[in-house]
């Protein structure tokens, strides 16, 4: 589910299948994975007014995305496409242990 | 794996210190060194400067060590422990102004990405900023 937008911005969206939504442990995994990329990465619950820095664990925990919500991801920078793909995969696969 | 900032957890209670360290290891992983101490040498509630120094040594990293504390004496004893380190290491240890559990998890998450000590401290303290 990757759309190449204009220029260097890559976006993706993925449904949060985790039973209790974006609680602490998934938030840590998402942040750790995001930090492995150089790209600037932002996420939001679909339709939310503000994008959140995917590398800020405090902000990701505070976003309180609920089970079944859709997470939108956008990234820009040299490895942005890989970053979006990796984060979509992490959420879609329900934050497996060892990921991130 | 490159060096990461180490994390030290100092609580008045050894159970809280150990439990917080368990949460960090389970949630963040084992790539960040985590050491903890809690209770006084007699097994009661309290904190002890020598035990804090031991924990700092156990979590030592050339990138530095971030210390997370709970109430009053944990902070003052941690500062005293830092003062007692040799001068070259003193500047590489910071006591964070952050809630102990949340601060430890967030500091370790930041440290796992290879961040500097200043970045780790800033992330831990993000929770107290508002």
TrEMBL record, chain B:
Alphabetized PROSITE patterns for the sequence: PTS_EIIA_TYPE_4
Q: How does it assemble?
A: Homodimer. The dihydroxyacetone kinase complex is composed of a homodimer of DhaM, a homodimer of DhaK and the subunit DhaL.
Highest taxon of the source? Bacteria
**What keywords would UniProt list here?**
Kinase, Transferase
Supply the Pfam families for this chain: EIIA-man
Q: What class of enzyme is it?
A: transferase
The protein's name: phosphoenolpyruvate--glycerone phosphotransferase
Role description: Component of the dihydroxyacetone kinase complex, which is responsible for the phosphoenolpyruvate (PEP)-dependent phosphorylation of dihydroxyacetone. DhaM serves as the phosphoryl donor. Is phosphorylated by phosphoenolpyruvate in an EI- and HPr-dependent reaction, and a phosphorelay system on histidine residues finally leads to phosphoryl transfer to DhaL and dihydroxyacetone.
Known catalysed reaction(s)? dihydroxyacetone + phosphoenolpyruvate = dihydroxyacetone phosphate + pyruvate
An example GO BP is:
phosphoenolpyruvate-dependent sugar phosphotransferase system
Spell out the molecular function terms from Gene Ontology. phosphoenolpyruvate-glycerone phosphotransferase activity
**What EC number(s) does its UniProt record assign?**
2.7.1.121
Q: Its gene?
A: dhaM
Q: What PANTHER family does the database record attribute to this sequence?
A: PEP-DEPENDENT DIHYDROXYACETONE KINASE, PHOSPHORYL DONOR SUBUNIT DHAM
Q: Does the keyword Transferase apply?
A: yes
What the entry lists under InterPro entries is as follows: DhaM (IPR039643), DhaM_N (IPR012844), PTS_EIIA_man-typ (IPR004701), PTS_EIIA_man-typ_sf (IPR036662)
Q: Mention any one GO cellular component term assigned to this protein in its UniProt record.
A: membrane
Query: Could you tell me which species this protein originates from?
Result: Bradyrhizobium uaiense
Domain named PTS EIIA type-4 is located at 4-130
